[in-house]
Amino acid sequence: MLNTVTYDGPAGTPLLIAHGLFGSARNWGVIAKRLSETRAVITVDMRNHGGSAWCASHSYADMATDLANVITEPTDVLGHSMGGKAAMVLALQNPALVNRLIVADIAPVTYTHSQNEPIAAMRQVDLNAITSRSDAKEQLGALEPGVADFLLQSLDMKERRWRLNLDVLAAEMDKIIGFPDVTGVFNGPTFFLSGANSDYVQPGARPKIKRLFPAAKFAKIPGAGHWLHAEKPREFEAAVSAFLGT
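Now predict its structure.
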């Protein structure tokens, strides 16, 4: 179901990394390679992304099941944004599969901002007319700084297609920005790591976080926003490594 990239490392508990919306396993290559100095690291393309299967559903229950099918032993799991929500649902539904959980800049709540603007921007690119990524970037139009370059990582110039199932992601957007009613509690070590400049994890979410994840600890990376792993990669890596005890 899921396309995976494995970075071999010393024996021990492996780390599974789940990317956010419009991302891919390759986005995490540099961090995964560095973290693999102390453990094996597995990065995945989530469903409807990258080289993974295109499916009619994009629910968190389904994404959590996808992740569970990748895991062959109790594993440390790191998820960013959409991947963080999927990782939380995985831990709540299958706690025996998750050793330690790291949730990067997301909370188990429903958000009000849609991500349909980037989808509309990608849809307006004439894939038959472009001859370079710069052509595509120009056609993407005005987006928030850095977003166009991020989206272009999912453009397959050879096949002239987006490696994203835009139709399903648009149709399932309410599920993506939401969070399902999940029963269960994950009592394992949990680390909510956020960007200090991000507003994705509000203080009001902490009671729910502590109810679902009683052992949750919190930290922020100064100077980082929502894409904290890309903006402050060394600081992000250091915080993750410290939590994992490396």
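Strands lie at 4-7, 15-18, 41-44, 75-80, 98-104, 155-156, 161-162, 190-195, 216-221.
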